[in-house]
Structures are given as structure tokens and as C-alpha cells.
Specification:
The protein is α+β, with helices and mostly antiparallel strands. About 30% of the residues lie in helices and about 25% in strands. Among the domains are: about 180 residues, CheC-like (Chemotaxis protein chec); about 50 residues, no CATH class. The protein contains ten helices and ten strands.
């Protein structure tokens, strides 16, 4: 058995500062576990701008448009690749532009497109797996093999051109799906491989994003459409609407029912014998038996009005012992009576 007292051991290192007495206080314990006190939070406008909490404004109509894109883009991709293509909508959400661009996994392609009617821009990002899947499908690849190993090289001109064909189809289908809300034309302007060169909004600006999944015979990937809220501002009120059906809120059955009920509505028709401007003094001076002369002869046509709107003209007469009016022109919106 070894006796440690036979060895000359060095003294243990002295604790720094106020811990020389050999006792720990709460501050020393917190420092030992990495707690250095409460952090000072941001205040004022900076706290609002740099806040990670996003007030998500749901756009029901945008979700409906994306559902339409799923159907039309699947058909367009089948015609482009001659393969079985399945397109699905993963999510429609809101995020800050800077956070989204930081999450783009490189290598990737970022397409910048312009909406001509609004004079604004949007982005479409394509991940590397979908890029190589589209290139493989368009160049006659068999598909269904192991995932392509990314070697870190830049995308070639051929690869960029093939992917741009897919993006053009996606933007055209989105424009067609958006037509019931408003006619728009989305034109692809350029494709970037560095997200810094595709900055169309500030890092703190809120954007609406729609992510789609494309599967082609065991291969595929995702692409995302990005719309800054400033871009969607011209149609924001329309995107906030809630409706059922495919005609932007119009229901043909309800429309026909409403039209039928309107035709059954009873209205009051007035025959205007004539008009004369009088002062208040003359009006107060009227007495029983006094005659008011109108600027019309007995044979002149009288105005027929409804709700103050002149619809037609007629001549007054008598039929079956009652006063009657005979129309001299049609009651039609195409033939309005001059006021």
C-alpha cells in the first residue's frame, strides 16, 4: 500500500478573487454553470424590427391559387419531361425575407421574376435535388437511381437553361391560376446562384412563401415562390377574401336565384304630368281653386319614372272608365330617355 504522505505534492491552486475563503456564493455558482446574469433585451423600434415573432396574416385566396397551380403545373411537367410527375403543395406561410434567404441551402438557383402589371418583383428558389432531377429527366436519364452527389461545382449554362424552362412553366401556370383574381404576367428575368444577388426586399420585410414538392419517378425536390407583402399590396384585399368555388366567389346557382327574385320585386311607377319651379312665397300663397299652368300641351308625351329614374314616355288617356297611359317607346336600358 502506497502512503501518499511520503510524496511531496504541490499545493492546489488558489481560487481567484473573493473565493479565497473556500466558500461559494450564488454568483459563483451561476458563473460555474454559464449563467452570467439576465440579458438586456432590445427596446423601442429596434425590438419591433428585429423581433422573430411574425404576425402571420392568412391569405385564403393565395392558398386557393396555389392549389390550382398544383394541378396545372403537374400537367405541364408531364408534357415537358414525358414522365410521371406528382406535384404537391407543402405549405403557404409568412417569414422575413432575410431569414428565408439565409435558409436557402446552396448550391441552389434563385430566379427573379417581374410582375409587369404591379411593377414589382418576386423570387422562385429551386433546391439542388430538383435541379439535377430536371436536368436528368430532360436529358434522357432513367431515374430511380441513387441521389446525385453534389461536387460543389457551379451550374453550367445547359443546366441553367433547362431549369429556366421549368421555371417559365411554373410562372405561366401561376399567372393562369391567378387570373380569376386579377390578370397578371410573370416574366422570368434572370437566374442567380448566389442569394445575395437576388435581394428584392429588405431583410426585415415580411414575405409570403409557397413551397411545392415535385416527384418524378423516385427523384425530385422542392421549389418555393416568394412574394414580398409590398408586391401583393395591390391585390391584398382580394387575397383576404374567403369563398367557395372556382369562380372567385361567384356562384352560378345563387346568381340565377338572385336574378329570378329581383325580377319578382314590386316597384312603384310614376307618371309625371309636368314640373314647374315656384318660390316659397308663391307656394305659400296657393289657394283652393287656383290653377297651376304647366309647360305641356294635352297631346304631349308624359314621362314614366321609377325611383326618380325616367324609363319611358307615354300618352295619357282613358280605358274602361279609368285613367290609363299608353307607352310610346320601349322600357329598355339600351334606349334611355333623355333627362
Amino acid at each position: 500500500m502506497i502512503d501518499l504522505e511520503d510524496f511531496d505534492l504541490p499545493d492546489p491552486p488558489a481560487p481567484p478573487g473573493d473565493m479565497i475563503g473556500g466558500s461559494f456564493d450564488q454568483a459563483d455558482i451561476d458563473a460555474l454553470f454559464g449563467d452570467f446574469g439576465p440579458t438586456v433585451g432590445k427596446k423601442g423600434l429596434r425590438a419591433v424590427i428585429e423581433s422573430k415573432v411574425i404576425s402571420h396574416e392568412r391569405l385564403p385566396m393565395l392558398e386557393v391559387v396555389c392549389d390550382r397551380v398544383v394541378r396545372t403545373f403537374a400537367s405541364s411537367m408531364r408534357n415537358l419531361t414525358s414522365d410521371g410527375v406528382d406535384v404537391s403543395l407543402e405549405e403557404v406561410t409568412s417569414t422575413r425575407f432575410g431569414e428565408f434567404m439565409n435558409r436557402v441551402a446552396l448550391p441552389a438557383m434563385v430566379g427573379v421574376f417581374k410582375i409587369e402589371e404591379w411593377e414589382s418583383y418576386g423570387l422562385v428558389t429551386v433546391d439542388s435535388s430538383l435541379i439535377y432531377s430536371v436536368v436528368d429527366a430532360l436529358l434522357g436519364g432513367r431515374g430511380g437511381g441513387s441521389p446525385v452527389v453534389i461536387d460543389g461545382r457551379a451550374f453550367t449554362t445547359i443546366e441553367t437553361g433547362l431549369v429556366s424552362r421549368m421555371l417559365t412553366l411554373a410562372l405561366n401556370d401561376f399567372s393562369e391560376a391567378f387570373a380569376p383574381i386579377e390578370e397578371v404576367n410573370m416574366n422570368l428575368e434572370r437566374i442567380e446562384t448566389n442569394p445575395r444577388f437576388a435581394a428584392i426586399a429588405g431583410v426585415s420585410n415580411i414575405c409570403a412563401t409557397a413551397t411545392f414538392r415535385v416527384d418524378m419517378d423516385g427523384r425530385g425536390g422542392r421549389f418555393t415562390l416568394v412574394f414580398p407583402y409590398a408586391t401583393l399590396e395591390p391585390v391584398r384585399d382580394k387575397l383576404l377574401q374567403r369563398f367557395m368555388g372556382e369562380k372567385s366567389g361567384r356562384d352560378s346557382i345563387w346568381e340565377a336565384h338572385m336574378a329570378a327574385e329581383v325580377r319578382k320585386t314590386s316597384v312603384s311607377m310614376n307618371v309625371l304630368l309636368g314640373e314647374k319651379a315656384m318660390s316659397i312665397a308663391e307656394l305659400r300663397g296657393l289657394e283652393i281653386g287656383q290653377t297651376i299652368a304647366l309647360h305641356k300641351s294635352p297631346d304631349d308625351s308624359l314621362d314614366i319614372a321609377c325611383g326618380g329614374v325616367k324609363l319611358a314616355q307615354g300618352q295619357i288617356g282613358q280605358r274602361n272608365g279609368k285613367v290609363a297611359v299608353r307607352l310610346v317607346n320601349d322600357v329598355s336600358s339600351d334606349k334611355k330617355v333623355k333627362q
